Amino acid sequence: MNIILLGPPGAGKGTQARHLVETRGMVQLSTGDMLRAAKESGTEMGRIVADVMARGALVTDEIVIGLIREQLETVKANGFIFDGFPRTLAQADALNDLLAECGETLDAVIELEVNDDVLVTRIVGRAEEARAAGQPVRADDNEESLKIRLMEYYKKTSPLIGYYHARGDLARVDGLADIQAVQGAIARVLDREPIVA
Ligand code: ADP
Question: Which three-class secondary structure state does DSSP give residue 105?
Answer without folding.
Answer: coil
